[in-house]
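Researcher: Please predict.
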Amino acid sequence: MRNVFRTLMDSQPAEAPVAPQMAELIRGYSIEVMPRTAAKVEDFRHLLPAGTRVYIAHIDGTPIDDMVATAVRIAGEGFPVMPHLPARSIRDAGELELWLKRYRDEAGVDQALLLGGGSRSPAGMLTSSIEMIETGLFDRYGFQRLHVAGHPEGNRDIDLDGTTRLVDDALTWKQRYSKSTDAAMAITTQFAFDAETIIAWDRRLRAAGITMPVHIGVAGSAKLQTLLKYAIACGVGPSLKVLQKRAMDITKLMLPYEPTDVLSALADHVAQEDSLIEQVHFFPLGGISAAAEWANARTGETLPQSA
């Protein structure tokens, strides 16, 4: 098997230079961590370019103490922090206010990603990002940037019939809200691997009058088996077919997945026509270091080395 692997590696063509438009799209990327994965990083300053926005994913059941402590640590290293706020994990407006106050007072956080959340059983009264917005608490606590979820391949947890009617209605509501708030708003999407689906979604949003910029979610470098597991768990459709096709190619099966193809196609799309896509957001499914190092290599980013 080792000889087969060596043969496959030797047969791979050298990677082509990164096109300027692809490097430009990646530059200024954001990345997502969890408290337990962030704890494995000794110092984010040796891994991420200065100013990189770091999202902190709030997995259902994670104590708010762990979330806030992670925000304090990453903010203390000089990075803007954007915690997830999953409505279904928050009991009511009172608990939401407590979380916002802690993030602001303890970590200096003034931005958040608003989500409905993946829990099928809400912790209390809140069930959607719209309900959280309607509390008025983000304005009261001075949150300057609010991101909302986007789903290029739809979301069957919301649209049970397989359409995009409810997610489209929600984005239209948030688009209207974005005009009435001083907070900067953007759409951060679920990860996807199929560029054609993303491009079609981008065009459809623009045609529907959406003007909020899109931060497109992509998976960082990872083993194919890892990505298949996450794709199945998250219910992505066309993307799963892309991965399954890759799994059938023995010359690629044993090599780590890299988001080169999808980002190259998206960069061409952004360069050739009007697009809402403004930035790339990495889901480091193969590890934070792997995702960041891959992105930094494509943008020519040089970081300080650890002592």
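Model: The first strand starts at residue 30 and ends at 33.
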